[in-house]
Amino acid sequence: xxxxxxxxxxxxxCWASGVAIVTSIYxxxxxxxxxxxxxxxxxxxxxxxxxxxxxxxxxxxxxxTNVFGVTILSDEQQEISDRFAGRIIDSxxxxxxxxxxxxxxxxxxxxxxxxxxxxxxxxRYELAFSTLFMAEVIATENQPGKPxxxxxxxxxxxxx
Length: 160
Fold this sequence. Notes:
This protein has 3 helices and 12 strands. By secondary structure, it is an alpha+beta fold. The chain has a single domain (18-146), classed as Roll (Pnp Oxidase, Chain A).
């Protein structure tokens, strides 16, 4: 039995997930995009996975550098999620006006996220339209707060 991509997407919309941005740098140009396809693969060694569409600038930068960062967004960063998802028209620099910092690899991270993962690509699995990157975490930081969540094409928030 074959299902359509629309059937698959409709079923996947039932899965609540956190929201993150994946960032990279190449030739002194920084870029990033919103994702919810981020997950832990291994604790020892620390490996995470993220899937990016093959036609994105962020994916192409990672292909060239083999480094990227993941910022898990807090529930106060919906505008940043929308900006990095391309829902808000920007000047071409999605980082404009945001406070950023770097860890070991030099990729940018947006301040005030909940957690930050500095990564080096170890494996990649290319599909027809996307690529799964599996990367070793070489540095991480975190801070208290509540995550920004996404369910059925809407942002959601945790309640106490």
